[in-house]
């Protein structure tokens, strides 16, 4: 059985002091729910402080981006290899990075390879725009993104990473996909593409999260979908009580 994951993407929010306080609150509120993997992803400048605040608690810390080269003249970038040892996870290919910072399937693929080589677990984001959704292109587009992201990876590497299906039209809009829609794409497109590439065992072992306006009020229904293994949470992860409640609800769904 795949272990569920609640991953918080804090985006460009929280000062070091605020992030430290939030991390401490999350440790307190979620410590009992060990059947759920908890991951929090603050900005680069908060990583050390958040890592320290988490201490020995079983909560993973992740960056929101990385670069594939190991060092050199790449102003403003942080190498995957530099994050290793400090954090365990890294979000790669978030739609905001694709939209505002020119990331492509090719650069996402390079970053995934660098992250895996550094021993990090990539949280790889894919998802279609509203226009693509309305044009009926969701399946072909998302499947293409999965293929692009995973190009050249072994089955073992694929099952070690986490895929997050995040329809762009649902991110930060308050308009989540229905649990049925989300489950259908996570299973029928994302996991199905992994199955085509690497067979049943790898597809069944690979975790697929849903992201897009998840909150305490809709997470139970989403987590009941058999092909959804957790959530990548934006806005609701900035509040310890909301995030803690989502972890609690997920823990309960998985005890059944
Ligand atoms: C995200 O940014 O990955 C996200 C899912 O945001 P939100 O939960 O706010 O829609």
Report the average pLDDT across residues. Answer: 97
Ligand inventory: phosphoenolpyruvate
Task: Examine the secondary-structure arrangement and name the CATH architecture.
Answer: Alpha-Beta Barrel
Count of DSSP-assigned helices: 12
Characterize the overall form. globular
Q: Give the strand line-up of the largest sheet.
A: 1-2-3-4-5-6-7-8
Please count the beta strands (DSSP E, at least 2 residues each): 8
The fraction of residues assigned to DSSP E strands is 5-15%
What's the Cα radius of gyration? 17 Å
Report the CATH C-level class. Alpha Beta
Terminal Cα span:
13 Å
Helicity level, as a percent range?
40-55%
Structural class: alpha/beta
List the helices and strands and how they pair.
Elements lengths: L4 E5 L6 H15 L6 E5 L5 H8 L4 E5 L16 H4 L5 E4 L2 H6 L4 H13 L3 E6 L3 H5 L3 H13 L4 H6 L1 E4 L13 H20 L1 H6 L1 E5 L4 H8 L6 E4 L6 H16 L1
Parallel strand pairs: 1-2, 1-8, 2-3, 3-4, 4-5, 5-6, 6-7, 7-8
Please provide a written account of the structure.
- Strands 1-2-3-4-5-6-7-8 form an eight-stranded parallel beta barrel, surrounded by seven helices.
- It has twelve helices and eight strands.
- It is 47% helix and 15% strand.
- The mean pLDDT is 97.
- It starts with a strand and ends with a helix.
- It has a single domain (5-236), classed as Aldolase class I (TIM Barrel).
- Helix 11 packs parallel to helix 12.
- With 256 residues, it is α/β, with parallel strands linked by helices.
- Strand 3 (59-63), helix 3 (80-83) and strand 4 (89-92) form a beta-alpha-beta unit.
- It binds phosphoenolpyruvate (PEP).
- The site of phosphoenolpyruvate (PEP) has 13 residues, from strand 8.
